Amino acid sequence: MYPFNSSRSYIRNAWYMAAWGQEISRRPFERIIMDEPIVFYRKETGEPVAMFGLCPHRTHPLMDGRLIGDDIMCPYHGFTYSPQGACVRIPAQDSLPRNFRQRIYPLIERGGAIWIWMGRAEQADPALMPALAEIGMGVSGWKTVDNGLTSIKARWSLVIDNVMDLSHVGFLHLKTIEAPAAGDTTPLDEADERIRCIRMMTDQSADMPYARQAFPENVEPLDIEIGSIFHGPGLIVTFLRFHTAASRGPRRLLGVSNHLQGVTPASPHATHDFSGIVRNVRLDSDEFDDWLRTAVIKTREEDVEALEKIEPLVDRYANARSELSGVGDVSAIRVRRQLAALLAQEEAA
Ligand code: FES
Ligand SMILES: [Fe+2]
User: Domain count of the chain?
Assistant: First the structure.
């Protein structure tokens, strides 16, 4: 499937955002991830549970079920499953299928979000969790604004392409972000342990709407870095870093706004795109929170429109080997290579 040469649709051995913490409660709820219906709920202690979401008896969705303590009871004939996936009750029957196991997915709750492991449970490795503290998630002096999720009818790799190449901010989001320089600045492609693509837009007007919101008192021009960092198939962080302008004296970092993009495959042609903003400026401004939410929603609509136009075309018309790429695509191509290697690794295993 474009742009990869793999029979696999997904990279399973990674942590993906499954939900924002507040989406999961004592009321079972379903989300489809990698084409698998998964039911989520919380145990009485608050610990989240993720279980394959269809009853193994006659396939009724368990999201309509009822919680009895920490167990979930199917609404159709009352079969009941424990959070470990055991069938613990079949009405009017004393003996239970002892080796029966409903699939349970490993979860980690961190940074206000629930992260799921879609590979084999015994391979779930907490050390592979994205470095959330690096982004400021859950760190004091930073604030996370949860911005929900967008369902995009486009494959996950197109969503990753979109966020790894922010030159589109200068075109697709010209009216919403008003940063034409993003499209006209040559990026610095860097890769140490992470692949990153950064553009330094120098001498930007203090009146650029984002800068005006972040620093309402400021009248001086700013140097603004805009970039993306690849944290793994499930998380890309895009960011704006605001600096004093080097043209006026030594450059000084004033503040950072990280945009978290949780990219979770829903199916081969659809993606859950979780969005959150983690910033260390104007933490107590509700006005800035609202402005960010609105701006992100508007720009995301623009992205969705473009991605949903592209999705039905790529399998027929695009060829990753012959498509035209520019210098701005270097990081996105590095990311594709890494993703291709992960797909190949899982295929070989
Ligand atoms: S379908 Fe769930 S108990 Fe029968
Ligand atoms: Fe965008």
Answer: 2
Q: Which atom of ligand 1 is nearest to the CA of 79?
A: 3
Residue 63 identity? M
State the distance from the centre of ligand 1 to the C-alpha of 180, rounded, in angstroms: 57
Predicted pLDDT at 181: 82
Residues enclosing ligand 1, CB less than 6 A?
A: 55, 57-58, 60, 74, 76-79
Please tell me whether residues 174 and 112 are part of one structural domain: no
- Tokens for 91? 């009405």
Ligand 1 atom closest to residue 62's alpha carbon, by position in its atom list: 2
- Rounded CA gap, 193 and 344, in Å? 20
CA nearest ligand 1 atom 1, residue: 58
3-state DSSP assignment of residue 68? strand
323 shares a domain with 187: yes
Structural domain for 225, as ranges: 130-348
Q: Is the pLDDT of residue 189 over 80?
A: no
Q: Where are the extended beta strands (E) located within 245-335?
A: 253-267, 270-279
CATH number of 87's domain: 2.102.10.10
Q: Are residues 85 and 138 in the same domain?
A: no
52-83 per-position pLDDT tens digit? 999 999 999 999 999 999 999 999 999 999 99
Proximal ligand: closest to the CA of 66: 1
- Nearest-atom index, ligand 1, CA of 55: 2
Question: One-letter amino acid identity for 226?
Answer: I
Ligand 2 centroid from CA 112, angstroms:
23
Same domain, 171 and 303: yes
- What single DSSP character describes residue 136? T
- How far, in Å, is the centroid of ligand 1 from the Cα of 33? 22
200-239 pLDDT, tens digit per residue, is 999 999 999 999 999 999 999 999 999 999 999 999 999 9
pTM beyond 0.90: the answer is: yes
